[in-house]
Design goal:
With about 375 residues, this protein is α/β, with parallel strands linked by helices. It has eleven helices and twelve strands.
């Protein structure tokens, strides 16, 4: 019996030794197959990591982008305008078919529309970053760009304050913080001066007409409704929808003091206000009878720094008594144009095409 136990112990010791030898051999083989990273390789990997950074965009997404950005594609007219205002036009290598301001933007390589841009065209431009607007672009586009390893940064301003903050955030992101700070200061000062001038007068009750048939206006949570407030006005439409369809009967009941229209997009043709005096429903409005119309640049449709110039222009039209007769030229080439109401022509009488207008994004933003 003692001999049996002795033999068993001996066999166990042999097994342990075999396992130990096998483990040692396996470790040596692994070391041979995966040698330690050389100091040069480690430095290269560290350098690669240092060329990128993680940021959070205005939609709450955390994205990884290059630390140095030299090639930008813009997928919204408002973003293109902002880049030009920041002096980043040379870094802009492509934009959309709707990016028409300033004129130089019309000559940039085009990647299609805001809703369905060409992914192939974007990729061919080799952008370091694509800038997108939540109000103008689709989530599918953002996801498709991610699949191509092309980072995109989303902006999502809802108020005038948001627009100014977004401009400065883009400036910081793209390495032009000084330009962003200068524009921020200029816009804030101009807004404060406009508000100071109109604050002593009652707010004008207005209807902002996005489209007359069907009649579409703006909801209370849009940046356009906020712009009206800065100009000393308040919309008669208090809807939670951004672009609500409303009835003429409701408008007649409310009797706005002014009707506000934006210049026809890309044509420069103002509205034929005389035609409203012959249209059923419209001719029952006191504002139509008294020709209390305000016409502003189509920049009011775009959440960019140029919107502040539109606010100044609109405030002068609604509250001329608060201003002298001298025109004010804004800095950074942001001044909205003035129009001659005596020579206007019809531009809002036809239904918009699907390429020009969608209820979710009526102005291509």
């Amino acid at each position: 019996m003692q001999q049996f136990f002795a033999a068993t112990v001996a066999r166990a010791r042999i097994a342990v030794c075999i396992v130990a030898i096998a483990a040692s051999y396996a470790g040596s083989l692994a070391s041979a197959q995966a040698p330690e990273q050389s100091p040069a390789s480690a430095r290269a990997a560290a350098a690669s990591d240092s060329t990128f950074r993680e940021v959070t965009d205005e939609t709450g997404r955390t994205i990884r982008i290059p630390r140095s950005i030299h090639r930008i594609v813009s997928l919204a007219p408002s973003i293109t305008e902002t880049l030009y205002a920041l002096g980043l036009q040379d870094e802009l290598v492509g934009d959309t078919d709707y990016c028409d301001y300033p004129v130089d933007a019309q000559h940039k390589p085009k990647v299609g529309g805001t809703i369905n841009p060409s992914l192939e065209a974007i990729a061919a431009l080799r952008p370091d970053l694509v800038l997108v607007a939540k109000s103008a672009n689709r989530l599918d586009t953002v996801r498709a760009l991610a699949d191509l390893n092309i980072p995109s940064f989303g902006i999502d301003p809802h108020t005038i304050t948001d627009i100014i903050s977004s401009t400065r955030r883009l400036a910081d992101l793209l390495g032009v913080s000084e330009s962003g700070a200068a524009i921020n200061k200029d816009l804030q000062q101009r807004l404060a001066e406009t508000q100071h001038r109109v604050s002593g007068f009652p707010q004008r009750r207005v209807l902002f007409v996005v489209w007359p048939q069907p009649l579409i206006s703006v909801g209370r949570q849009t940046f356009i409704a906020d712009a009206l407030l800065y100009a000393g006005a308040v919309s008669i439409i208090d809807s939670p929808q951004d672009w609500p369809r409303i009835s003429l009967e409701a408008v007649v009941h409310e009797q706005p003091e002014f009707l506000i229209f934006a210049e026809a997009h890309n044509t420069g043709a103002p509205t034929d206000f005389d035609s409203f005096t012959t249209l059923p429903g419209w001719r029952a409005l006191d504002a139509v009878k008294s020709r209390r119309f305000a016409l502003v640049s189509d920049a009011i449709n775009r959440p960019s720094p140029r919107l502040v110039s539109v606010i100044e222009d609109l405030a002068r039209q609604l509250h001329p008594e608060a201003f002298d007769n001298k025109p004010r030229a804004g800095r950074f080439n942001l001044q909205a144009p003035a129009f001659d109401f005596s020579s206007v022509s019809e531009s809002h009488s036809a239904q918009p095409s699907s390429a020009e207008f969608t209820p979710e994004c009526p102005c291509s933003l």
